[in-house]
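I have been asked to look over a protein record a colleague put together. Thanks in advance; the entry in question is below.
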Amino acid sequence: MVSSPIEPAAGTYEKQRREHWSTIANWRSPVWKGLNSYYHRRLAEIYCYLIPPGSSVLELGCGEGDLLAALQPGVGVGVDFAPQMIATASRRYPDLHFAEASAEEFDPHQQFDFIILSDLVNDLWDVQLLLERLQRFSGPQTRIVLNTYSRLWELPRKFAERTRLAAPLLPQNWLTTEDLENLLELAGFETIRHWADILWPIRTPLIDRFENRYLVKLFPFRLFALANFLIARPKPTPLTAASVSIIVPARNEQGNIENIFQRTEELGDAELIFVEGNSTDQTAAEIQRCISQYPHRNCRFFRQTGTGKGDAVRLGFEKATGNILMILDADLTVAPEDLSRFYNALASGTAEFVNGVRLVYPMDKEAMRFFNLVGNKFFSLAFSWLLGQNIKDTLCGTKVFTRANYERIAKGRAYFGEFDPFGDFDLIFGAAKCNLKMVDMPVRYHERIYGQTNINRWRDGATLLRMVFFALRRIKFV
């Protein structure tokens, strides 16, 4: 990518920025300092949720380094052009690296897990130029996280300046979320999700917590939020040297096993991993018979020691050798022939987490009972709102992602705990927490040809409802 040349006027503007922030560093308004302190503490809480400790983090416009230090990075690099701020940051946080430089010109010659632009794009002469230059230290897994003032607060901010309740600012880029998404697109990035945050920027016991953790997440209150957040990733590139492991959890599915061998595409030399879970029929014996009958298939068989589909899937992932992991339910209500669609979406880089959706096409007459359908639609709406990404069908068993991303999900599992007997929400919640690009894959949902469902609509529906409330606490209202 060829970057745009810097306009001559940009040099003058850069000088103004340096002089301005030198003045701001000595601003003595106690009211402003109190507001600023609370606002930045709340920003730190949000960023600590988004970025796991031990990550490699670059913060452009780091100020005195407080936000970067709060993240407990494994590798932390902060950049700011104000020498007094860099001197303070280096003295406070000697374990981190700080550099005095313009954000537009800095080049650390390395890639980072996360790049933070906190209230930086408001001040830049050329936002697109800076975003283009982020490509130099971005890899496929890099996430750009930025926040900027909402345009709705432009007039209140000017009033606060005139009454000396807030420090004066340079003329701001009051960018909308749509503006930022467009600039990221032009610079070679793709927005994963965005949201509004911080409704009440004043430390007020009980009120600030209630408004900033709860009300701001709800309509119409979110329209009045102070800050807009966006998470983006570099535009995708195709995977190379992809190998596939297809995990098939099977309990009481004897009559479906041979069909799986016959109908599942090999997708190169894909391995089939069967995990049999305490069946009361001859599922285990049928798997072993088919392994002998189809010796050309790369297939392995394991017996589950725990209980629940989630436990079976995790055992299969543990034994898998491929760098693309797929889940195929043994009931064959989702056709094995559709796995190639999932593979293509992942291998092309379009998605990092491909989720099957049974609610787009017409279903076979007996494929899903009425109350199951209603429940699925309710939970799809609830979880799309909770996660900030569209998840139209939360309970379709067919999901595909890379081994590397599964390891990231598993590493962060302690945040949610071992609470999901199905395995679907463990993966969906983890993917959302890891800021993965999630894409729905429409599939046709077929009637069972053997056996009965292992799902109890009322008991398991109550479990799902508990998960919604759990996700409210651990994902939405943080």
